[in-house]
Amino acid sequence: MWFRNLLLYRFSQTIPFSEAELIKALDERPSRACGSQETHTLGWTTPFGRHSENRVQVADGYWLIALRKEERILPGSVVRDGLAEKVEEIEARDGRKVYKKERDTLKDELVMSLLPRAFTRTQTTLACVAPQEGWIAIDSASSKRAEDLLSLLRECTGSLPLRPLNVKTAPAACMTDWVKTSEAPEGLIIGDECELRDTSEDGGVIRCKRQDLASDEIQQHLTVGKQVSQLSLQWQEKLNFTLDDKLIVKRLKFEDLLREEADDQGADDMAAQLDASFTIMAKTLSELIPSLTAALGGEEIPQGI
Predict the structure, then answer these.
(1) Of 35, 39, 74, 123, which is the most exposed, with the fewest CB atoms less than 10 Å away?
(2) Which residues have C-beta within 8 Å of that of residue 234, sequence separation ≥ 6?
């Protein structure tokens, strides 16, 4: 239940659908298995699996939704080997060269013939929607997975005025300054892991784990111009995470105190425990997001919005 990553988005205007409208929209596009000739399918499932009945889980004004993707797995090596064999057969039989256009056609035919026999895998992506506060947090560090969810949500609801959450100061500049001065803004504590990146086009990358970031070695790298592109942080003794230069929160870990609180509220009922976990997580994120954006110079709001 607890998110492990965060990709953050901001509504650019009042959310254009109600809770009831969202439920209806998601119910019309349920998740399903791949057909024999489909490479993948996208649909909505229940966020708590068998422990919930609705495709929108609601708690204290927050909504939790879950995208389920099923895709057929065709290893690239299998396709390449099959195509090479087919091309070799045609060239030997007809005494001619097989060029790109024909190769592409042969590849498409080969993929379609292999799909029915391919294994499938499923992937669930969760998103927390805060309609009153105007943000969506997606539990993924992959922009592609997030875009799959947002594209289907836009398709189902008809409108999704959304943009990535932006800040006024580049995260890399802020994190570099924090490590240089060994001081982070109020509420944040610098951890012992970071990634240092050379700003030149072909610059190298140094990854540090379990290091004193105030040490002379780290400071020397900063002095010669390297920037902090990832940094481990602790926030208010509630969360540990790694922040990167694209404002993606990775390796998010909610501290035991919050998890124990959810366990106490849920008692022995799994559904109640999941609901309590979601509520506590959503409220914690609603505190983290403004605190983090303030630490990065404040939220950047495009003109005209």
Answers:
(1) 35
(2) 188, 189, 191, 240
